[in-house]
Design a protein that fits this description.
The structure holds two protein chains of two kinds. By secondary structure, chain A is mostly helical. Chain A folds into two domains: 95 residues, Rna Polymerase Sigma Factor, Chain: A (Orthogonal Bundle), CATH 1.10.1740.10; 93 residues, Winged helix-like DNA-binding domain superfamily/Winged helix DNA-binding domain (Arc Repressor Mutant, subunit A), CATH 1.10.10. Helix content of chain A is 67%, strand content 0%. In chain A, helix 3 runs antiparallel to helix 4 and helix 8 packs across helix 9. The longest helix of chain A has 25 residues. The radius of gyration of chain A is 19 Å and the shape is elongated. Chain B has one domain. The longest helix of chain B is centred in the middle third of the chain and has 20 residues. Chain B is elongated, with a radius of gyration of 22 Å. Chain B starts with a helix and ends with a helix. Classes of the chains: A mainly alpha, B mainly alpha. The interface between A and B is large, with 44 and 40 residues.
Chain lengths: 193, 78
């Protein structure tokens, strides 16, 4: 939706709207909300795995945005700035729930059991969008955060390490374990179906 | 290279981040080990499916306007 609006000759860009909102233009802030609501909510939902918490966090993100929009200088894209703000807000939420330790060690998660080859190893479970989203929701927050940021959102490990305050190697290790855990969860779910 | 060593390196192998020796080791192992080959294929499908989620819009979004009213109330209290 935002792309369509921006492509219109008379559409006002995010940076201009942010400047206006920072100067107290309530209408400009509301426009930014409607443009970016879905993006923020979907990121919160994928990182949290819970619609109710995602809704609450989305509210917190935009309330925080309202407080800070005056400090947006336009050095980066507005979407990048808001994306980081959203990730930080979710991470703060995790910290409040005392799950921070999951980012500090490679071993802080449920051990991943590698399901090795069996007689039916060639019977591959269906890995589609629904199966994957269900499995992502079941991941521990530490794994889920790195997986969503890297494999869904497309961030590099270096950037993820910076955002989470962890070593790049830890980000890589967490991602690999998250993928293996997802595979295990999808296989478990396929057996139940 | 055994199964455990191979499994440990699959994400780096997928990303093309292994040195030549390890890459050949994993590749050779996958060719002769169907179970590990299945693991690799499944991880690859997971990564590919995840990248499709980014542009996927099949999420059940909450009511945008209800949430906006909640935000409006909060920000007037800021």
């Amino acid at each position: 939706m935002s792309v369509v609006e921006i492509d219109k000759p008379d559409a006002v860009g995010d940076v201009e709207l942010a400047k206006r909102a920072g100067a107290g233009d309530a209408g400009a802030f509301e426009q930014l909300y409607h443009r970016h609501f879905r993006r923020v909510y979907s990121l919160c939902l994928r990182m949290l795995g819970n619609p109710t918490e995602a809704e609450d966090l989305t509210q917190e993100v935009f309330t925080n945005l309202y407080r800070k929009i005056g400090s947006f200088r336009g050095d980066s894209q507005f979407t990048t700035w808001l994306h980081r703000m959203t990730v930080n807000q979710v991470l703060m939420h995790f910290r409040k729930k005392s799950t921070r330790t999951e980012f500090t060690t490679d071993e802080g998660e449920t051990p991943v059991q590698i399901v090795q080859g069996t007689a039916n190893a060639d019977r591959m479970p269906i890995i589609d969008r629904i199966a994957l989203e269900d499995a992502i929701a079941k991941l521990a927050p530490g794994y889920r955060t790195v997986f969503v940021l890297h494999d869904v959102e497309g961030h590099e490990h270096e950037e993820i390490a910076r955002m989470l305050g962890i070593a790049e190697g830890t980000s890589k290790s967490q991602l690999h374990k998250a993928r293996l855990k997802l595979r295990e969860l999808i296989r478990q779910q396929a057996k139940l179906n | 290279m055994n199964c455990a060593e191979s499994i440990e390196l699959l994400s780096d192998y997928h990303a093309g981040e292994l040195d030549d020796g390890k890459e050949t080791g994993v590749s050779t192992h996958l060719e002769k080990c169907p179970p590990c080959s299945v693991v690799y294929t499944e991880l690859t499908v997971i990564v590919e499916t995840a990248s499709m989620l980014r542009s996927d819009d099949k999420i059940n979004y909450p009511d945008e306007y209800v949430l906006w009213r909640r935000i409006s109330l909060t920000k007037t209290a800021v």
